[in-house]
Design a protein that fits this description.
seven-stranded mixed sheet, five-stranded mixed sheet, 9 helices, 28% helix, alpha/beta, 16 strands
Length: 371
């Protein structure tokens, strides 16, 4: 079983996260913002550095974006009080709400939507016409994610393949992009991934052709959640800043570099589709390797008051890694691949040119993360 505790993932600081250079000057405690890579770790680090700089300048305190290997590690760090807020994939966001009482604040928006779907797909040349045709095949997926694991198990249950001689072998990748690559390279016969990562892959590889066998309900993409004890303070401040980013020139520039259009409020009730999948999985919950009972639905609660609900339509974006100091002027089969790529954190003290990076070694861990 995969415990939501630390100590399973080797890191430089021994506390389950990448080491972060300390600010040389005394001042407000740094805001610890967790992310888990779902794509190239270095590209995500560059993206989140921009967000950290923007937040630090408006919060008047350092912001350290901490990259960890898995979403389980993020939950462990939040539980221990070492991470204040985190960008979480939908399944782990539900876990964080159920296990820790974490509060969703905002979600990133792209192309008019802040949601995605889990998809189970095969290459266009595959003879498989439905999920039942995957009997005895290999499926690439990503542990502890809606698109990369939860929805895949539900699809196999619907097709009557769980617990049978024909149950497919799961090949665990560290990220959704890696799962797609396993499929396209022919090392897997199918892949369970998030729709947004497949869309991004097709944009970069127009020749790629796949056929979708099943799609999940839509769910929020990589929303920002804060610890329960910080919802009315840190959560309120982050919500105010992020929701207004697209209303200033500086904010628009930061958003453009970060790769999203804007942020919109996110509410617990938006995760109902994930909870319904958990309910449908039923007694096969143990396939997820998560300690404790199945999660309960967070409920259709109203958006947290601090996020000032907007009437604009909703959408999507990804995760990354870094640290900034600012001032006011992220089984059916037992086979698991290595977790995410090396993580790390950059430290900036009032000067973007003075950063120092500390890289974390890659790790192979139960329940490799993703989104």
């Amino acid at each position: 079983m995969m415990a939501l505790a630390m100590g399973l993932f080797p890191r430089l600081d021994g506390n389950g996260r990448a080491a972060v250079a300390a600010s040389p000057s005394a001042g407000p405690a740094a805001l610890q913002l967790g992310v888990v890579p779902e794509r190239d770790i270095y590209a995500q680090r560059r993206r989140h550095r921009v967000l950290a700089e923007y937040l630090a300048g408006r919060l008047g305190r350092p912001v350290e974006i901490v990259t960890v290997n898995t979403y389980e590690a993020v939950l462990g760090e939040m539980s221990a009080g070492r991470i204040d807020a985190a960008f979480l994939g939908s399944f782990v966001a539900v876990l964080a709400q159920d296990r820790l009482g974490a509060v969703p604040i905002v979600k990133p928006i792209n192309a008019g939507a802040g949601v995605y779907r889990g998809i189970l797909m095969v290459r266009e040349d595959s003879p498989a016409k439905g999920v039942a045709d995957l009997a005895g095949k290999r499926i690439a997926g990503v542990r502890t994610t809606t698109g990369g694991e939860l929805f895949t198990w539900v699809c196999l249950k619907r097709a009557g393949l769980l617990g049978t001689p024909g149950e497919p072998e799961m090949v665990w990748a560290g990220t959704h992009d890696e799962a797609i690559e396993e499929l396209m390279a022919g090392r897997a016969d199918a892949a369970g991934v998030k729709s947004l990562r497949w869309e991004a892959y097709v944009a970069a590889h127009p020749e790629a052709r796949c056929r979708i066998l099943a799609e999940s309900p839509s769910t929020p993409n990589n929303a920002l959640l804060v610890r329960r004890d910080l919802a009315d303070t840190v959560g309120a401040a982050l919500g105010d800043i992020l929701l207004q980013m697209d209303r200033t020139d500086a904010g628009k520039a930061a958003l453009a570099t970060y790769g999203v259009e804007r942020f919109e409020p996110c509410a617990a009730g938006e995760y109902r589709g994930v909870c319904e999948l958990v309910g449908e999985l039923g007694s096969a919950w143990d396939r997820l390797g998560i300690d404790g009972p199945p999660v309960k639905c967070p409920g259709a609660a109203a958006t947290h008051p601090s996020t000032h609900p907007s009437t604009r339509p909703a959408t999507a974006a990804p995760g990354g890694a870094d640290s900034v100091t600012g001032n006011r002027s992220g089984d059916g089969a037992a086979k698991k691949s290595s977790a995410t790529a090396p993580g790390g954190a950059d430290s900036i003290t009032g000067n973007p040119s003075g950063d120092t990076a500390t890289n974390q070694s890659s790790a192979t861990a139960p329940g490799g993360g993703g989104h």
